[in-house]
Amino acid sequence: MKRSGMQLNFAAPGQIDFNSISKKAKRFGIQLIWSLVIPVVFIAGWDMIANHLQNPVVLPTVKESLQILIHPFANLIGMGSLFSNIFVSLMRVLLGYVLAVLVAVPIGIFMGYYGPAYRLLNGFLGLFRPIPPLAWVPLVLAWFGIASMATLLGIKQGQWYVYLNNLKLSMVFIIFIGAFYPVLTSALYGVRNVRKVLIDSARVLGASEKDIFRLVLLPAAFPSIVNGMRIGLGVAWMCLVSAEMLPGSLSGVGYLITHAYTVARTDIVVAGMISIGVVGSILDFLFRALEDKKFAWQRLSR
Amino acid sequence: MQETVINIEHLSKTFTTEQGALVPALKDINLSVDLNDFICIVGPSGCGKSTLLRIIAGLEQASDGMAFYLGEEVKKTNREVGMVFQDYSLLPWRTVLDNIALGMVFSGVARNESLQVATQYLKLVGLGDFARAYPYELSGGMQQRAAIARALANNPRVLLMDEPFGALDAHTRILLQKELLRIWEQDRKTIVFVTHSVDEAIYLADKIIVMSAHPGQIKETINVTMARPRDRGNPLYGKMNARILSMLDH
After folding, report:
1. Which structural domain range is residue A142 located in?
2. CB atoms < 10 A from the CB of B110, how many?
3. Tell me, what's the pLDDT at A10?
4. Among residues A84, A161, B10, B202, which is most buried (max CB within 10 A)?
5. Going along B140-195, which residue ranges are E strands?
6. How far does B189 lie from chain A, in Å, by closest CA?
7. What's the pLDDT score for residue A1?
């Protein structure tokens, strides 16, 4: 019998095992310290070099960059606060990303499930896969210019105009392209790699095609699909800076970074980069937590 | 008068390789299985015994000839014909109990009732304590017990078993053979059991079909009349084992 040990290690009900709790806390503490070693060395090294250089344009000190980060609502170089710029960026990424998921997941599942669809689309989509999202910029500008969601929806003024005008179609497109392929590929292979014996055994139990699709293929492919969505969100977030360098952009953390660079405010550049990193990690962490919770079976079925 | 459940007439199966070559897997198979029979098909690997079983199940089509279930040609799967596979086939995201209830989910049985029936079969295969466990928490032998329970819970008339104990260690294997006979004695469902172990076939079957490979053909049919439970120490057992093994050699 190989029932996993961790499930049977509970203390008797109503009786708290303080000894094991303090041991766990200790182990957790040691792990925490261990995982902080490299960041601390990194930050110390950065600060040492910055102090040695004494040139904030080349490398600001930790303190200068932190000043920006601990006042996220302060107005920076006339561009609004760090927080509001991150918020604008997040909205753009989410819009492009959600569209990519909505398009890529069904296509991926369909291609994985239905052979002729795979043969029809795979070669074509494969041609576009190696093109970096940034290479689309000239074409995208020619197509969309500075048109935004507001233009698309025909809104010309008011509060909504302000929000929607920030969502430039060109940016959404670049982010869409970035997120599209990881999501598509994972959905496709998630469905294709379902073990044949699972399908066969459902079939002999009397499953209809619909049953097999709904109760076997989809749940079996789901972890792979979610994993692709996580990777896709990471790529979408990485496409952000390139998207926000496009004309017509006057906000967003990517634009903030490029603009700060032109006025030699490297401290803002660094703070912006750190924000991008932190927000990206949080998004990734949330996805991983979901995967761990929902798809333990996949990790453990080997 | 015995009722014939499965009838196979002049059945052949040819596979096409990726290079386009034709490989004959089964050639002119004729076989009939009567109600309540426990039949074992033995043969070397590559003799097409699994393919034959998959054709009977409706998972594959014959190239030539026909397979009949209760007088009707088998064209697709049928829930009256259950199957247990060699590879672990439980759905890993469902609990053991929910896996056993799966066939009843497909046929639209109410959830309460299906869980009740599933619990009953779970107990039958000795997994009563593992209803809420997930397949990855079970050993290989326990997973196969659950797979058998799942097939039986769907109440099939015929149970096809494709080397169900092939991946298990020797001890577990003998234990599960015993268990299978115990379960079978209760309602004597018709079983067609594919194995490459001659010993297993003699222990289980009323009738052993010996196949040869390249192409797969039926070489001989042997009736096993020893009373159950069979004693592996019985000289007759050893003799039969030696005889079938020598058949497989040629």
Report:
1. 69-300
2. 9
3. 46
4. B202
5. 158-162, 190-195
6. 16
7. 41
Q: Delimit the domains of chain B by residue range.
A: 4-80+158-249, 90-155
Write down the pLDDT at residue A5.
Answer: 41
Task: Check CB contact of A219 with chain B, cutoff 8 Å.
Answer: yes
Contact A129, A181 (CB under 8 A): yes
Residue A222 confidence class, pLDDT cut points 50, 70, 90: very high
Torsion of CA A117, A119, A122, A124, to 10 degrees: -100
* Residues of chain B neighbouring A202 (CB-CB closer than 8 A): 91, 102, 106
CATH number for the domain running over B4-80+158-249: 3.40.50.300
Which chain B residue has its CA at the smallest distance from A8's CA?
A: B137
Which tens digit of pLDDT belongs to each residue from A248-278?
677 888 888 888 888 888 999 999 999 999 9
Count of structural domains within chain A: 1
Per-residue pLDDT, A302: 58
Closest residue to A205, CB basis, from B103, B136, B139: B103
Determine contact, residues B13/B23, Cβ cutoff 8 Å. no
Q: Which residues of A touch B82 (CB under 8 A)?
A: 204-205
Q: Which residues of A touch B89 (CB under 8 A)?
A: 197-198, 200-201
Tokens 């550049």 belong to residue: A269
- What value does the mean pLDDT of chain A take? 86
Lowest mean pLDDT among A154-163, B3-12, B13-22: A154-163
Judged by CB atoms closer than 8 Å, whether chains meet at B103 and A220 is answered as no
Within 10 A of B55 (CB to CB), how many other CB atoms are there?
24
Count the helix, strand and coil residues of chain B and give each as a percent rounded to the nearest 5: 35, 25, 35
What is the reported pLDDT for A232?
94
Contact between A260 and A268 (Cβ < 8 Å): yes
Q: What is the pLDDT of residue A79?
A: 78
Contact A201/B77, CB-based, under 8 Å?
no
Q: Which of residues 126-155 of B touch A (CB under 8 A)?
A: 133-139, 142, 147, 150-151, 154
B105:A201 CB<8 A: no
pLDDT digits (tens, 9 = 90+) for A7-37: 444 445 556 666 777 888 888 888 889 989 9
Instruction: Say what the ipTM of the complex is.
Output: 0.92
- What is the residue-wise DSSP string for B219-238? EEEEE--PPSSPPTTSHHHH
Is A8 in CB contact (< 8 Å) with chain B?
Answer: no
- How far A288 CA lies from chain B's nearest CA (Å)? 18
Residue A58, in any domain of the structure? no
Q: What is the CATH number of the domain that holds A84?
A: 1.10.3720.10
| Residue A105 pLDDT exceeds 90 | yes
